């Protein structure tokens, strides 16, 4: 079976569009269509029904799609393992949400590297949604995220529990407010699609409040930048307890309790569903999960 044709079929189904698949595969639309026809001819079965709404799997196509998922995953694992053998040092490609990526995780990486000096570690910090996409794109193999995406292509393992707290500076911040009073506070939030933003939106929706009801003065894509804004008295924000513990001890900022609202969440290690960790990747994941606090 031609794996190139199988990949075109698999991506077409994932994209629900031949034209979108062609862009992802860097092929022409007629080229992808030809590969799909060749695959159907090779297997002696019609795999797709095409319409203006996209593509729909036939019964035969459903069978082939399930096998394609497995076969292409195995192909990726073979290529990865061969590449690792050809490299002088084993590699870890890690992506993390910024809440831990800018604070706790670098310490854990340093500790792991100190013990395993032979490992080459490549690390990127971005928001949770971007980490998930990088896993799917095979840009990274290990992700640390703030929420479980409930995605069929991604599996997760819980690391540690945390909670989002509303915080402001220590000079003029109230100690407790109602949810209605929250609507009036000048808020600085993480960017859209970040894990923190999604957790806040979900918690407020459960209380019947839309994010648009809030007084959001601006968004920032860095927890560090948000903390700097709070210290300067620019507003209030929701931040993970994990990254503000030292600031609270130093009385640089203070929490603001919101009546009848709490936002607990978990940090997770995430990976592609059918991806098999290398020896060192599994060692790093075990190291993170087995730690009492999850991170340094």
TrEMBL record:
Gene3D superfamilies registered for this protein in UniProt: 3.40.190.290, Winged helix-like DNA-binding domain superfamily/Winged helix DNA-binding domain
Descriptive protein name: LysR family transcriptional regulator
Source species of the chain: Oceanirhabdus seepicola
InterPro entries to which the protein is assigned, alphabetical: LysR_HTH_N, LysR_subst-bd, WH-like_DNA-bd_sf, WH_DNA-bd_sf
Keywords: DNA-binding, Transcription, Transcription regulation
Domain HTH lysR-type as annotated: residue spans: 1-58
Molecular function per GO: DNA-binding transcription factor activity; transcription cis-regulatory region binding
The UniProt record lists the keyword Cytoplasm: no
PANTHER family: HTH-TYPE TRANSCRIPTIONAL REGULATOR, HTH-TYPE TRANSCRIPTIONAL REGULATOR CITR
């Amino acid at each position: 079976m031609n794996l190139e044709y199988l990949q075109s079929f698999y991506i077409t189904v994932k994209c629900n569009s031949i034209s979108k698949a062609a862009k992802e595969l860097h092929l022409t639309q007629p080229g992808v269509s030809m590969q799909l026809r060749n695959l159907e001819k090779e297997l002696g079965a019609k795999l797709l029904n095409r319409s203006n709404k996209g593509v729909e799997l036939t019964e035969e196509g459903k069978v082939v799609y399930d096998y394609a998922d497995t076969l292409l995953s195995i192909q990726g694992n073979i290529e990865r393992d061969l590449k690792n053998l050809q490299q002088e040092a084993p590699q870890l490609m890690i992506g993390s949400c910024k809440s831990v990526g800018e604070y706790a995780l670098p310490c854990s990486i340093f500790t792991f590297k100190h013990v395993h000096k032979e490992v080459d570690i490549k690390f990127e910090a971005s928001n949770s949604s971007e980490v998930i996409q990088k896993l799917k794109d095979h840009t990274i193999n290990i992700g640390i995220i703030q929420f479980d995406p409930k995605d069929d292509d991604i599996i997760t393992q819980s690391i540690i529990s945390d909670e989002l707290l509303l915080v402001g500076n220590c000079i003029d911040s109230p100690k407790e407010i109602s949810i209605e009073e929250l609507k009036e506070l000048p808020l600085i939030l993480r960017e859209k699609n970040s894990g923190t933003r999604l957790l806040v939106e979900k918690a407020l929706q459960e209380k019947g409040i839309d994010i648009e009801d809030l007084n959001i003065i601006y968004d920032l894509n860095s927890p560090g930048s948000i903390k700097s804004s709070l210290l300067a008295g620019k507003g209030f924000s929701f931040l993970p307890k994990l990254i503000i513990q030292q600031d609270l001890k130093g009385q640089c900022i203070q929490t603001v309790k919101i009546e009848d609202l709490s936002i607990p969440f978990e940090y997770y290690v995430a990976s592609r569903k059918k991806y098999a960790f290398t020896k060192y990747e599994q060692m790093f994941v075990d190291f993170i999960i087995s730690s009492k606090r999850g991170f340094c």
